[in-house]
Amino acid sequence: MKKSRTLSTTPQIVRLFRVDGKNKNKAQERELEEECPRAQPRERERERSRQRHSLPTVSEMNGLHALNSPLTKSRDVSPSPGLLAPIPNGVRRISGDVSSSPTRQSMTGPVPLPSPNMLSPSSPAGEKESPGWSSAIGHATTAGKSGRVIEKLMAENDKLKRELELQVLRVQELERNAQTYHPQIEALLEKVDSLSHASTMDSSLISRRDRRIEELKTDNASLKEDREIMQRKMRDIERQRDEAVDQSKREVLSLVESTKHATVHAEILETSHRQLSAEYRARREKWNHDLANLHEERERDAKRIARLDVVCDQMRQEAERTRRLQADLVAKWEGHELALRATEREADAESDRFRQKTHEMNQVVDQMRWLMGMHKVQEKKKADPPDSPRDSTQ
């Protein structure tokens, strides 16, 4: 009973799989039409013809075809009514009856399958039946152990063939899906190439920017060091100034009683102030004259700009010709840039020399101040009377 039920239901499973496969193909075609709603009929026909003339699949090159695939003629695997009818006792089925015996497809041709009703479901287990005919074993009884083994092997063989058909159909479906995904993969590869090119360009720009940042960092560090040095120098100068102020206060307290020296000193300061005021007055007149000249130049520049606005329209027409000179200008620009770098190096050297000279001048000025102070002290000692008790107390 169990064997007959299994054999009678397997064709229904195959039929269901065929319907599902057709539905899947229709669904995929519907999805393709939805993805390309604006495609023209000519382009669709071209795509279908390309798919028809595509390269053979792996199963075709191996020589294995699905029994129910479009490459071969479809066969009806549903059981015929004659095969399901019970066989009476003492009667055997005719082996030459093609309509009553099912066949199975093979590489060499159709092979008849064993009848699923060789054992009558209504007959008892212990009753003997007439032997049937099979192309594989000939006349053999199906009631014995060998018949059951043969039926089991044939059923397993059919099951394996159906599984093979399913696997072949799946392989064909996967190949069709791969063909549909091929243009998308090509587009993605092109996109990956463009992105890789963009990434290389970005990496070069980033490396160039990083180098520039490192240069700016080094410049900033050098500027910070220079600023710290200048701040230290400024603190030293302020300290020296405070010391000088304190010293001057002490000197003022010591020089209060010497009115003559103070008067002379005041006269000297007055004359120096007059000289400085005259010098500042001359500078102010010069600056006023320069400002007047600058105002005149600005007015002339405004008029010139008005004329240049008119000329600018004409120069736009000459832009095409100036583009041809771009290569020469670039070469000249590189030469000027090299000259500018050389000038900058010379300017740096000159600034270093100037800084050294300034330092030397500051040292000379300090020495001169010290000498002038010593000279004034000596003159004061010469001008003052000999040491008195009052001076000794001071």
UniProtKB/TrEMBL annotation:
Keyword field contains Coiled coil: yes
Annotated Polar residues bias: 1-12, 97-108
Residue ranges that the Swiss-Prot or TrEMBL entry lists as coiled coil: 150-177, 206-247
Keywords, comma-separated and alphabetical: Coiled coil
Listed Basic and acidic residues bias regions: 17-48, 376-394
Lineage: superkingdom: Eukaryota
DNA-binding keyword on record: no
Chain segments carrying region Disordered: 1-140, 375-394
Name recorded for this polypeptide: SWI5-dependent HO expression protein 3
Species of provenance: Acrodontium crateriforme
